[in-house]
Structure formats: structure tokens, C-alpha cells
UniProtKB/TrEMBL annotation:
GO terms for molecular function: methyltransferase activity. PANTHER family: RIBOSOMAL RNA SMALL SUBUNIT METHYLTRANSFERASE I. The keyword S-adenosyl-L-methionine applies. Residues 5-201 form the Tetrapyrrole methylase domain. NCBIfam families: 16S rRNA (cytidine(1402)-2'-O)-methyltransferase. This is Uroporphyrin-III C/tetrapyrrole (Corrin/Porphyrin) methyltransferase. Gene3D superfamilies: Cobalt-precorrin-4 Transmethylase, Domain 1, Methyltransferase, Cobalt-precorrin-4 Transmethylase, Domain 2. SUPFAM superfamilies: Tetrapyrrole methylase. Keywords: Cytoplasm, Methyltransferase, rRNA processing, S-adenosyl-L-methionine, Transferase.
Length: 286
């Protein structure tokens, strides 16, 4: 008889958010598979319980999905957790769920806190759907490409960010669309929880004025119904992307997507707006 895999949510900062069901599952599990064994043991200690067996998802002594299959085929109860929040949302876990289903094990969820749903509860507008982008790449063209893509989204997008990169993220949004509505939230559920909702331009000033240490979650508001097609807006966007570190072809792709301009036209405009363009290539000032 196959066992049971319980996919469980853990507190994202406040241990008081741990549910009685999570405590019971951790205490009775034959095996707990976790992101970091030290973090999970501290959680168990705070809950006043002892874990029977613990294995990490990653690292030198990590458990492989095949080994998990053996435990489940032996009829064991395995609990899958990450350091904070729900497994599967910008955290590992999906391969183990797939393995459990492949061997016919019962897979159940023990719902818990999630930074994405928590921050959306602070969003001041009703929404039928939203997107979770997780962590963007730390730097490079891929980061710029994904940022431009989420700015084109027609729904709010949740982004996780590290304290040393939060200003860079907010400034990048403000450079492309200073009036875009955003929500910045720091240290959700913790003692020093704080948040700000307003334009990207105002958010940059707010973030600079506070202690930025801690974990950040950002909601980027949806794109406007009409893309920025005015001449002034089009030129401002083109100039900002031309002066960025993006390759001209990538910058042109972003301009074309956000303004509905033909790709070749956008590419030519990017080349003309680059700081190293010859004077004859630059557009006349308006």
C-alpha cells in the first residue's frame, strides 16, 4: 500500500501562524523532507515537538525523488515543507509531488501562509486574477526582459526581491513607467512589517527613506488599458531602454510590445537613441 505525501505550508515570519494541523503532521510524520534541515528543526523546537527523521531537498545529503518513492511505497507518511510559505511557489518541491503521484501515493495539502496571497490582501483593488513572477534574475538582459514583460501584463504581478536589490527594482519600474501603481511590502507578518502603496516614482522615495533590511514582496499594478502611444511617451520609453544595458534587439522587442510599434521601426529608434549614435542618426528634439 502506498503512503501519503503531505505538502505543508510553514510560517513566513511569525511562528504563531503555524497551524495545529501542521504541528500534528510534523510530529507524526515518518519523514520530513525540507529545504533546510536547520530551519525546520528550529520550527519543530518552537512548536515543542521532535521530528522522527529529516532529509533536505538540496545539498550534499539531499534526498532524491527516487528515494522518496521508496519511502512512499513502504507506506510511510512524508511531509514536504520549505523554509517559509508553500512549496512550489518560487521554492522547490514539484519533482517530489510528481514522484508521489507517479508511484500512486496519496497527495494532500496542508494550507499555510504564502507571501503572494498575503501581499495581495493588502492590494487596494478587487482582482479576479493575478500573476506570481517570484524572483527575477539578479541582473542582465534576462532581468530586463522579464521586467518589461510583467509591465505589459494586464493583471497585478507579485515579485519577490532581496533587500540589496529592492531599490534597483523600483527604480527600473519608475524609469519605464513612473506613474505605474505599485505596492511594496517588507517583513510581512513580522514585528517590523511595513508597506507602501502608490506610484513607482513615489515608492522609490519612500524606500530610500527607510531601513531596507528584510524580505520584500512587490505588487506591480496592471498595465494601462491603452499602451503609451503618444509621441512623448514613446520617445521617453525608447530613450530609457536605449540607455540601458539591454542589447538593441532586446530593447526593440520591449518597445514594440509596449507601444504596438513595428519591430523594425522600434529597432531603428533604439539605435538612434543610443548614447553612442552619430548625431545624424539621432531624432530631432521635440
Amino acid at each position: 500500500m502506498s503512503g501519503v505525501l503531505s505538502v505543508a505550508g510553514t510560517p513566513i515570519g511569525n511562528l504563531a501562524d503555524a497551524s495545529p494541523r501542521l504541528r500534528s503532521a510534523l510530529e507524526t510524520a515518518d519523514l520530513v523532507v525540507c529545504e533546510d534541515t536547520r530551519v525546520t528543526r528550529r520550527l519543530a523546537s518552537a512548536l515543542g515537538i521532535r521530528l522522527r527523521a529529516v532529509r533536505a531537498l538540496r545539498g550534499q545529503n539531499a534526498i532524491e525523488p527516487e528515494a522518496l518513492a521508496t519511502h512512499l511505497l513502504d507506506g510511510e507518511h512524508v511531509v514536504l515543507v520549505v523554509d517559509a510559505g508553500m512549496p512550489g511557489t518560487s521554492d522547490p518541491g514539484a519533482p517530489f509531488v510528481a514522484t508521489a503521484r507517479a508511484v500512486g501515493a496519496t497527495v494532500v495539502v496542508i494550507p499555510g501562509p504564502s507571501a503572494a496571497t498575503a501581499v495581495m490582501a493588502l492590494w487596494p483593488h478587487e482582482v479576479a486574477r493575478y500573476c506570481v513572477a517570484g524572483f527575477l534574475p539578479q541582473r542582465g538582459a534576462e532581468r530586463g526582459r522579464l521586467l518589461a514583460d510583467l509591465l505589459a501584463e494586464g493583471v497585478p504581478t507579485v515579485v519577490f526581491e532581496a533587500p540589496n536589490r529592492i531599490l534597483e527594482l523600483v527604480d527600473a519600474i519608475g524609469e519605464l513607467d513612473p506613474e505605474r501603481e505599485v505596492l511594496l511590502a517588507k517583513e510581512l507578518t513580522k514585528i517590523h512589517e511595513t508597506s507602501f502603496q502608490g506610484t513607482a516614482r513615489a515608492a522609490g522615495a519612500w524606500a530610500r527613506a527607510i531601513d531596507r533590511r528584510g524580505e520584500w514582496v512587490v505588487v506591480v499594478g496592471p498595465a494601462r488599458v491603452a499602451p503609451p502611444t503618444s509621441v512623448v511617451e514613446h520617445e521617453r520609453l525608447t530613450r530609457a531602454l536605449a540607455e540601458s544595458s539591454l542589447a538593441p534587439s532586446e530593447a526593440a522587442r520591449i518597445v514594440a510590445r509596449l507601444t504596438n510599434a513595428p519591430r523594425q521601426e522600434a529597432y531603428a529608434a533604439i539605435l538612434a537613441a543610443r548614447p553612442d549614435a552619430r548625431p545624424s542618426e539621432r531624432p530631432a528634439p521635440r
